[in-house]
Design brief:
The complex is a heterodimer of chains A (about 375) and B (about 550). With about 375 residues, chain A is an all-alpha fold. Helices cover about 75% and strands about 0% of the residues of chain A. Classes of the chains: A mainly alpha (about 375), B alpha+beta (about 550). Chain A: Belongs to the binding-protein-dependent transport system permease family.
């Protein structure tokens, strides 16, 4: 803005913020500094006591939490003092941001620390730093790698689930009788808790002696309908139960995508004489790719957390055939109170999940670019 | 107060008065007694009457007891509380109780038993209900993170190392010891069980041992007897006394028809889905104990001087091999790889599948009183099978001699009070009063007779006349109770160590056993070695020296 223009603007055209006096800014800086000093000193004192260097009489870590809350208040106050209106705006975001830091970042950092410790709840000594020992143990732990291999199979099953979900979404998108009824019915499994599913289906309907599914299988000619006694069969049964719960989730996402597709394109395809298969493969499927990727990624995230059905129905058996990483960590942590090693497994799994999803997204975006070029 | 409850109470009181009058008259006539002796006689007769009355609730063969029954029993057994606590004395006291909710028992019963106690004393109890598999982690986390949030605790003796060893429990006051009559406990539940450094912490409410339950109709069946005479090893067709016989009978029964249900007959029911929060290991220990527990050696799980595991010694390997032998022979029911101990007891054996299994005493008390049992009239009991040879860990040699070692698995549940109440005398008295009510002598007779999750554990529980008067068949009850009593009193009983983290050892063993049972190891020895290696790791992690010290202490060494 040149000087002439600036002069041309009347001073009452907008409300200029009041200039913030230097003294107020100084006070703001001081408030923040006091809050920070209180937090750092409290945390340091608690840490030193934890390490056994000094005894300040702390019983718990709660004073550090109070110091953090005090620091948060000081931070907000200093923002208002130093930045005026901008600072007040920041107050809308700060509590949420500080809460996230407290509930996600701190625990994550603590988990990383715990994962490098030797900490068994039955040991009197509490956590002891043991460097990379837990990591080395993980690399040679057959139960962990067995569970990892199972996870690969579980993830691959998503391809089939996606195809089924897409098919169901197409059916529900078409003009069929009682469409609304089927939409609700197909969604019901998603509303069931996986634990309830485990008992209702895994432990009751598939029960070999009296389960209706076992009886049906027997009637169909299967002499020994033991759904969980052979490794592959047990794994497949778990996959089916998990799929039954979560296919509706994919289906509803895909159905929403189908409903938002432009009708003109479909009509143009019809006018041009495209067959139903051509319409699907050349138009619907490509247009649905972004939605499909979202659905698959969400499903992968859910699948990576698979544990409840396994814990309730097979406990990872037979012989670890159905174990997932999460159900294995559950046993290490819960049954064996091995907090250090269990946390390391969880942290490594988190890293693997993040890396896997990033790689998957990257791969898909490259593939989609190539697909777009091919289509155009 | 509701009318029907009032009427019931009036009926009970009238009955007691009548009995007391009679007792006083009898005492005066026969003894010309002093008033003291007369009072004793009155008390004894009233006591006997009370025990007989509570055993009629709801009555054997009258279906499973309900909450109303538990409350009624709790009310009738409130005498000890009335003697030691004034009405409303604990007004305003709030206690938190942590326990189990297995099979809708344990805490469910405690709630009913304690409701009249709450009404009388004015105290209130909050409940923390846990599934069996969640119990150990919940307890360990509370201890390790300093977040013990319960004043009273239902706990097994194996956890005493974790709790009493860390000073988390409150010492039992003397008045409680008198009130609950601790001398009545069977001997193996007396010191050192329930004590730590000479202080007593536990009110026993259960005595644990595994016993063999078997189908008498199998062993009384003419066709089976004839077929066994033709196909068997020449021994008589009788319930097995050794594990070798268990296996022989199981192989023989495979492919035959169950005389009760008409479905396929099976022999022994090993829970091959052994992963059960650590508790599944007990079922392998049943088989291993008579091979591994030498009468001259108190230790059988670890070497007491080094904590070197014995779980991969020839005795344990033989026990695992016996299971594998039945797996390979196809002698188990279909889908047995997915059968955990709850399945084998409640969905299989009590529901009419399988010829025998080892379990806690619940199978006996449920056989006749549970709505879901079909084997009440055809079930027999004995101590766990023995072995025809025992491994001597000192010499490293097998000794070809018959050996028995009943597995007193878990040493029973007890009620403990935590040190959260230690500084508040009113709350402390309330907690111990509630615990004493649950562990009372008369109430315990009822819990051992009806589905409760607990089995007999007092000498007075083995009075067969009381059970017979309650409606139990004399032969059945003698059979059932004597199997428990003989296990408790067996000179070579296998008693587990009360060392910290014992369930961690069991849990990792379960994972490896599941792999062995599903044939993932080249040999049983290889799998057993993997268990031993994992056990060594746990010992090192918890602290070898301390574990050795506590293990020796638990063995009385």
């Amino acid at each position: 803005m040149d000087e002439a223009t600036a002069r041309a603007i009347e001073s009452d055209d907008f409300v200029a913020p009041d200039p913030i006096p230097e003294s107020r800014k100084r006070l703001g800086r001081m408030v923040f500094a006091v809050g920070t000093v209180v937090l750092v000193v409290t945390a340091l004192a608690r840490l030193l006591q934890e390490l056994g260097s000094f005894d300040f009489g702390f019983v718990t870590w709660r004073p550090v939490l109070y110091a953090y809350i005090f620091w948060g208040i000081a931070l907000g106050w200093s923002q208002v003092l130093r930045r005026g209106e901008d600072g007040k705006r920041a107050l809308f975001v700060l509590p949420a941001a500080l809460f996230v830091v407290a509930m996600v970042v701190f625990p994550l950092l603590f988990a990383v620390y715990v994962s490098f410790t030797d900490w068994n709840l039955s040991a009197l000594g509490g956590p002891k730093f043991n460097g990379l020992a837990n990591l080395r143990r993980m690399t040679s732990d057959p139960f962990y790698w067995n569970a990892m291999l199972n996870m690969v199979w579980y993830i691959l099953a998503i391809i089939v689930e996606y195809a089924i979900a897409f098919g169901m979404a197409l059916i529900l998108h078409s003009q069929i009788r009682a469409r609304k009824f089927f939409r609700v019915v197909f969604l019901l499994p998603l509303m069931l808790s996986p634990v309830a599913l485990s008992w209702m289906v895994g432990k009751s309907m598939m029960e070999i002696r009296f389960g209706p599914l076992a009886n049906l299988a027997r009637w169909l000619g299967w002499d020994n309908p033991a759904f969980f006694s052979e490794p592959w069969l047990a794994r497949s049964s778990i996959m089916v139960m998990d799929a039954w719960t979560f296919i509706p989730l994919m289906m509803i996402i895909l159905l929403a995508g189908l409903q938002s597709l432009p009708k003109e394109v479909m009509e143009a395809a019809k006018v041009d004489g495209a067959t139903p298969w051509q319409t699907f493969w050349k138009i619907t499927f490509p247009l649905m790719l972004p939605v499909s990727i979202t659905a698959v990624i969400i499903r992968v995230i859910f699948k990576l957390k698979l544990a409840d059905i396994i814990i309730n129905v097979t406990s990872g058996g037979p012989g670890g055939a159905t174990d997932s990483i999460t159900s294995f960590i559950f046993r290490v942590y819960r049954d064996r109170s091995n907090v250090g090693y269990g946390t390391l497994l969880a942290v490594v799994y988190l890293v693997i999940i993040v890396a896997f999803l990033l790689a998957l997204l990257n791969l898909l975006s490259r593939w989609m670019r190539g697909y777009d070029q091919e289509v155009s | 107060m509701k009318v029907h409850i009032y009427e019931r109470l009036m009926a009970i009181q009238a009955s007691r008065r009548g009995i007391l009058k009679g007792a006083a008259g009898a005492g005066a006539l026969t003894l010309g007694a002093t008033s003291g002796l007369g009072a004793l006689a009155r008390h004894a007769v009233a006591q006997d009457n009370l025990r007989a009355e509570i055993l009629k609730i709801p009555g054997v063969g009258m279906g499973s007891p309900t909450d109303a029954d538990w409350q009624r029993v709790g009310e009738m057994c409130l005498g000890g509380t009335r003697e030691t606590v004034e009405e409303g004395e604990f007004e305003g006291v709030q206690l938190t109780f942590m326990g189990l909710n297995n099979q809708n028992l344990h805490n469910f019963l405690f709630r009913g038993f304690l409701r009249p106690w709450e009404q009388y004393t004015g105290a209130r109890i909050e409940w923390i209900d846990l599934a069996q598999a969640d119990y150990n982690p919940r307890l360990q986390q509370s201890i390790a993170t300093g977040t013990v949030d319960f004043d009273m605790l239902e706990m097994g003796a194996p956890f005493e190392g974790d709790t009493a060893g860390r000073g988390l429990l409150d010492e039992m006051p003397d008045w409680v010891k008198t009130l609950i009559d601790m001398d009545d406990y069977v001997d193996y539940l007396k010191e050192p069980v329930g004590t730590w450094d000479g202080k007593t912490y536990r009110i026993s409410i259960d005595g644990d041992c595994h016993t063999l339950a078997f189908r008498t109709d199998y062993y009384g069946n003419e066709e089976f007897a004839q077929a066994w005479a033709e196909e068997g090893d020449g021994s008589p067709w009788e319930s097995p006394t050794t594990w070798a016989q268990v296996n022989a009978h199981s192989r023989f029964l495979a492919g035959k028809t169950d005389p009760l249900t008409g479905l396929p007959a099976y022999g022994f029911l090993d829970p091959l889905k052994i992963t059960w929060g650590g508790f599944g290991f007990y079922f392998l220990a049943d088989r291993a104990a008579p091979y591994a527990k030498h009468p001259d050696d108190p230790a059988w799980l670890f070497d007491p001087e080094t904590m070197k595991p014995r779980v991969n010694n020839p005795a344990f390997v033989r026990a695992i091999e016996e299971v594998m032998e039945l797996v390979e022979a196809g002698a188990y029911p279909q889908d047995q790889l997915n059968a955990d101990p709850n399945t084998t007891a409640f969905q299989q054996f009590l529901a009419g599948t399988g010829g025998m299994l080892t379990w806690w005493g619940d199978v006996g008390s449920n056989a006749r009183t549970s709505d879901t049992s079909v084997v009440g009239d055809v079930v027999g009991f004995s101590t766990n099978p023995g072995a025809d040879a025992v491994y001597n860990s000192q010499s490293g040699e097998w000794e070809q001699t018959a050996n028995e070692a009943p597995n007193n698995a878990y040493i029973g549940w007890g009620i403990y009070v935590t040190n959260r109440v230690s500084d508040d005398e009113k709350k402390r008295k309330a907690a111990w009063s509630a615990a004493a009510h649950l562990g009372g002598k008369d109430l315990s007779l009822w819990t051992s007779a009806y589905p409760s999750g607990f089995q007999p554990y007092r000498k007075s529980h083995f009075n067969y006349d009381e059970w017979e008067a309650a409606g139990y068949d004399r032969d059945f009850i003698e059979d059932y109770l004597s199997s428990n009593r003989d296990s408790y009193n067996h000179p070579n009983a296998a008693i587990e160590p009360r060392i910290p983290g014992i369930f961690q050892y069991y849990s990792i063993a379960e994972d490896e056993l599941a792999k062995i049972f599903s044939g993932q190891y080249g040999s049983v020895q290889e799998g057993a070695d993997a268990i031993a290696e994992a056990w060594e790791g746990i010992t090192d992690q918890i602290g070898r020296e301390r574990q050795i010290e506590l293990y020796k202490a638990s063995l009385g060494m």
